[in-house]
């Protein structure tokens, strides 16, 4: 094995291993002690993630037009994955509303943000946040509408993450700055978000249910496969620069978001089947992510 291959393997290891360690800490802690992450997760969504988004979006170095094609690509990956796999629902004997949301809406928060930052450095954080926002906007509009057609999509405008995004973009566009006494605590709160996401994912992994393992196994293969296929098909059209194409490939390869299970539970849409798809998909990502990383790092 030559030095280039060894360097690539080392980079993949140094990217994936810290994620596995933090997820494992959450898993084994929850196995040892009964752990309810509902309050921590709510605080993360309402406080820490908005702080991270505002911190990134309001930075002077953030250039929104530079990520417009990447954002459009992410939108097409999410929607395209659903369209690509729609015909398979009947073959697999599963309801569309049960199977398609986990295939479309991936783990761009808990896994995607730290993965891109570890693989490509802090320069990838704005792109990672953009991908996370696109996926979340679609999940809280299209995703909820798929489960309940009576949902008002404009409710998304009241989400703290969306408010933080708009505020951050205003600060960036008009070159506004906050006093250091305000900006520093916001930055510190944002730094809590990523490790807490990973820890919470580990806690959630303790509830793996193998009752519906067949549909879960199909989902663990089809979710990353469909995302990567759509990303590859889009590149000749979007002509993303190599680094952004690498980001989009990894975005496409991410496993289903844990939020899919919470949504299925809320709308009583076969939550146990969705849980199997989500959790087996995240376990399967331990094999998928290193392969996707190897391809993306070479492409970038």
UniProtKB/TrEMBL annotation:
**A GO cellular component annotation in the UniProt record:** plasma membrane
Q: Which residues cross the membrane?
A: 12-30, 71-92, 104-121, 127-147, 159-178, 184-203, 215-238, 244-262, 274-297
Q: Pfam families attached here?
A: Mem_trans
Kindly list the places in or outside the cell where this protein is found, as annotated in its UniProt entry.
Answer: Cell membrane
Annotated membrane topology is: Multi-pass membrane protein
Q: Which InterPro entries match?
A: Mem_transp_PIN-like, Na+/solute_symporter_sf
Task: Tell whether Transport is among the UniProt keywords.
Answer: yes
What is the protein name given in its UniProt record? Permease
């Amino acid at each position: 094995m030559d030095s280039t291959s060894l360097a690539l393997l080392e980079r993949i290891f140094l990217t994936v291993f810290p994620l596995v360690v933090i997820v494992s800490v959450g898993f084994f802690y929850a196995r040892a002690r009964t752990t309810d992450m509902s309050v921590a997760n709510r605080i993360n969504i309402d406080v820490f993630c908005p702080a991270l988004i505002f911190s990134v979006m309001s930075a002077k170095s953030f250039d929104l037009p530079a990520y417009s094609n990447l954002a459009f690509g992410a939108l097409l990956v999410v929607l395209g994955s659903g369209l690509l796999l729609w015909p398979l629902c009947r073959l697999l004997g599963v309801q569309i509303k049960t199977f398609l949301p986990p295939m479309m809406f991936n783990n761009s928060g808990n896994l995607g943000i730290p993965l891109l930052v570890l693989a490509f450095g802090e320069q990838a954080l704005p792109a990672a946040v953009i991908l996370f926002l696109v996926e979340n906007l679609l999940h809280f509009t299209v995703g909820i509408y798929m489960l309940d057609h009576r949902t008002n999509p404009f409710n998304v405008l009241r989400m703290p993450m969306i408010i933080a995004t708009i505020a951050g973009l205003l600060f960036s566009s008009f070159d506004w700055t906050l006093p250091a006494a305000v900006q520093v605590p916001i930055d510190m709160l944002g730094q809590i978000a990523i490790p807490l996401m990973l820890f919470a994912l580990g806690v959630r992994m303790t509830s793996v249910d193998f009752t519906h393992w067949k549909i879960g196994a199909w989902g663990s293969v089809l979710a990353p496969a469909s995302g990567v296929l759509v990303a590859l098909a889009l590149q000749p059209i979007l002509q993303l620069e190599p680094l952004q194409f690498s980001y989009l490939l990894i975005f496409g390869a991410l496993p289903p978001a844990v939020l899919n299970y919470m949504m299925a539970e809320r709308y009583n849409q076969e939550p146990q089947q969705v849980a199997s798809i989500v959790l087996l998909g995240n376990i399967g990502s331990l094999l998928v992510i290193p392969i996707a990383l190897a391809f993306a790092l070479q492409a970038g």
